[in-house]
Amino acid sequence: MKPTKIVCIGWNYKSHISELKSKFPEVPTVFFKPVSCLIGNGEDIVIPKGITNVQHEVELALIFGKDCKGVSEEDAMDSISHVAVFNDVSARDMQWKARDEGNTWDLSKGMDTFGPMSEPIPLKDAGDLQHLDLELTVNGEVRQRGNTSNMIFTIPFLVSYVSRYITMNAGDILITGTPEGVSEIKPGDVVVAKIQNVGSLTNGVRSER
Ligand code: MG
Fold first, then answer.
1. What are the CB-based long-range contacts (under 8 Å, 24+) for 24-31?
2. DSSP for residue 197
């Protein structure tokens, strides 16, 4: 099932908010990435000409198994069929400039190849989604390490909250935020994102040719 959209949650780990000096949110921050940014395991993240300070963000991705609108927290997980490892690649200098000017993040988060995702696995094989270790390495060096228990808004809450306003269609993707340790990736780097029980995602980085 092809996704029609990727809905993204910003600022959902306490530790990531501290490092980026943002305020704790009262409600989830929701934004989108276009499906055209998706790439798979083994494909390259491509940094366009003139784009500086591109950063990685390891995130747990939820994949909807059926159309979903207005679900309660209690019923939320019935809508999710698969999970995957996602890297919410972000052009950070562009994103901060947009933020400072009161503009949207869309372009800085939505460029081609800025959505690496691992092969999804069935939800039932992932165990307790709210207690999974996340890790991201660049060239073998650990940059991000966290646990989904550190989320501000729980996974069922996020599904319920988003579906209150947006119909999530079968195949759609919801990414749930990143823990601390985001940092720059450069051409030649190899980025490996891992989530306990869920899998591993490896992508090289190169410049636009
Ligand atoms: Mg993110």
1. 24/152, 25/152, 27/161, 28/153, 28/157, 28/158, 28/161, 28/162, 30/162, 31/7, 31/104, 31/105, 31/106, 31/109
2. T
> How remote is the CA of residue 196 from the centroid of ligand 1, in Å?
18
Ligand 1 is an ion; residues with CB less than 5 A from it: 57, 88, 178
The residue among 34, 30, 23, 24 whose CA lies nearest residue 8 is 30
Pick the more confident residue, 14 or 55: 55
Per residue in 43-62, pLDDT tens? 999 999 999 999 999 999 99
Q: Using the mean position of ligand 1's atoms as its centre, give its distance from the Cα of residue 60 in Å.
A: 10
Dist. CA 10 → ligand 1 center (Å): 5
**Is the pTM value of this prediction over 0.85?**
yes
Q: Residue 92's CB: how many other CB atoms inside 10 A? A: 20
Measured in Å, residue 157 CA sits from the centre of ligand 1 at 17
For residue 115, how far is its CA from the centre of ligand 1 (angstroms)?
10
